[in-house]
Specification:
The complex is a heterodimer of chains A (246) and B (219).
Chain A: E1 3-9, E2 18-24, H1 33-46, E3 69-70, E4 73-74, E5 96-100, E6 109-111, E7 114-115, H2 118-125, H3 148-158, H4 165-169, H5 176-187, H6 190-193, H7 196-209, H8 220-224, H9 232-245
Parallel strand pairs in A: 1-5
Antiparallel strand pairs in A: 1-2, 3-4, 3-5, 6-7
Helix pairs in contact in A: 2-7, 3-5, 5-7, 5-9, 7-9
Chain B: H1 2-5, H2 8-38, H3 40-52, H4 54-84, H5 101-104, H6 106-134, H7 144-151, H8 155-182, H9 190-217
Classes of the chains: A alpha+beta (246), B mainly alpha (219).
Chain lengths: 246, 219
């Protein structure tokens, strides 16, 4: 298939940036979206032009690095996938495809389609962990009885790969789905309950300090999340925060 | 506690609580208005009670006004903050693929409701305050029905009311269930809340529209 691509090009964090049009030809519908980007970059290198910078790593949907906003949606038009899992069969021959970086003040563009997502790292460092003594005397986790329902809900929340699609999709650039997943995965387990109050207070404070917007429950994050993290987690985050603060 | 009050979640919760308060108020207002379709006397009695009872006049009414003002101001504050969180817009944004029009445009449906409230205050509340507390006119427990009926003579006013209530319905279609989510209520009853919210968002504004139209066409 032959496609027209409109891609955001930005030389560096201070550059103004602009959309640039490219044509790609003979693209197989079996290619992943990133492979199509690889083909374009090889052509650009052959022509002596600067290739397009974009984030990618595992290319199997678990690392959360690929971060493209494609035709107005995070990770493109398919559901429950990352960009590396998006196939070109989702598009038609002759289509024009817009490719942009995540847009959020808290995720500044580093170059082209690459954004700085260390705001998520700082939120994690503020409390997204449990303090466990790993000296070798750690108790076997299976020795603590945990209701199956809570174990499943915790595992579902832990599926969050921190890609930032929730922020990119939200009209308010809110990070609440990410933070709620990280708070929930611990809050649901006995090991996480010990530090639950400090964790939720500190993570929400860091989230607000990073400049993410306020959640208005549009639900866009849940729809676009590659791991289909549920909005129930945001309600749990709200409950945990109220419990810890009042 | 100061960190809590300025946090994004506390703001969400404050918006929700003021919204739930206004949702309850709207039912009371609707019940009072609907009596005007069935009995002039009952409507006059209800209105006279609401307009003269000291508990309602000096405690409930100020709380209501504070609730309304708070909901609007906080709505604007959140809108400004949320706009700032994305300094560069997408060249192409297919928001309709992942969210409803109502959820994305609460500020605009809210602004129409605010404009309606200004008209509503000019129509009813200011004349009422003038009647009771400025001109100190004599109490007349039978005047309310005629005042209401007269207001709906003008088709432009009726049209403005209809448009405002359609926008209120759109506001409530998202706002009702959103208020529950924000206070952390998301459990096995959530589907019931969503259904209840849809019925509430459609029936209450529709009821107000029917009341306005009935009075208009009975002239």
């Amino acid at each position: 298939m032959n496609l027209t691509l409109k891609i955001w090009r930005q030389k560096g964090p201070q550059d103004k940036g602009k959309m640039v049009e490219y044509k790609v030809t003979d693209i197989s519908e079996h290619m992943s979206f990133l492979e199509m980007m690889d083909v374009l970059n090889e052509e650009l290198v052959d022509k002596g032009e600067e290739p397009i910078a974009f984030d990618h790593d595992c290319r199997e949907g678990i690392c959360g690095m690929c971060s493209l906003h494609i035709n107005g949606e995070a990770h493109g038009p398919d559901r429950g996938i990352t960009t590396c899992q998006l196939h070109m069969r989702m598009f038609k021959d002759g289509d024009t495809i817009y490719i942009e970086p995540w847009r959020a003040k808290a995720f500044p563009v580093i170059k082209d389609l690459v954004v700085d997502r260390t705001a998520f790292e700082r939120i994690q460092q503020a409390g997204g962990y449990i303090s466990v003594n790993t000296s070798g005397n750690t108790q076997d986790a299976n020795a603590i009885p945990i209701p199956k329902k809570n174990a499943d809900l915790s595992m579902d929340a832990a599926a969050c790969i921190g890609c930032g699609a929730c922020v990119a999709s939200c009209k308010n650039s809110s990070a609440m789905l990410f933070v709620s997943a990280k708070v929930s995965q611990f809050a649901l387990l006995p090991q996480g309950k010990v530090e639950a109050a400090d964790r939720v207070r500190n993570m929400v404070a860091q989230m607000d300090a990073e400049g993410f917007g306020n959640c208005t429950n549009t639900g866009a994050c849940e729809v676009e999340c590659p791991k289909e993290i549920s909005l129930e987690n945001i309600a749990r985050l709200n409950r945990e925060y109220l419990k810890a603060s009042i | 506690m100061s960190g809590f009050l300025s946090s994004s979640i506390a703001r969400k919760v404050a918006m929700s609580l003021s919204a739930l308060f206004l949702i309850i108020f709207l039912i009371i207002h609707f019940v009072a208005n609907v009596t005007s379709l069935f009995s002039e006397n009952v409507f006059n009695e209800v209105s006279h009670f609401m307009g003269t009872n000291p508990l309602i006049q000096f405690i409930v009414q100020p709380i209501l006004i504070i609730g309304v003002v708070f909901h609007f101001i906080m709505g604007f504050v959140l809108e400004v903050k949320n706009k700032r969180a994305r300094n560069v817009k997408y060249a192409k944004n297919n928001a309709a693929a992942n969210s409803t029009w109502m959820s994305r445009n609460m500020i605009y449906s809210g602004l129409v409701v605010l404009a309606f409230l200004v008209l509503h205050f000019i129509d009813f509340w200011f004349p009422e305050m003038n009647y009771k507390y400025i001109e100190f006119l004599p109490e007349d427990p039978t005047r309310y029905y005629a005042e209401l009926h007269h207001k709906f003579q003008n088709p432009l006013r009726v049209g403005a009311y209809v448009v405002a209530f359609i926008l209120l319905a759109l506001h409530l279609l998202h706002g009702f269930q959103s208020a529950f989510q924000s206070i952390g209520f998301n459990n096995k009853y959530t589907n019931c809340v969503k259904k209840l919210g849809k019925w509430y968002a459609i029936l209450i504004p529709l009821g107000f529209i029917i009341i306005a139209l009935c009075h208009h066409f009975n002239h």
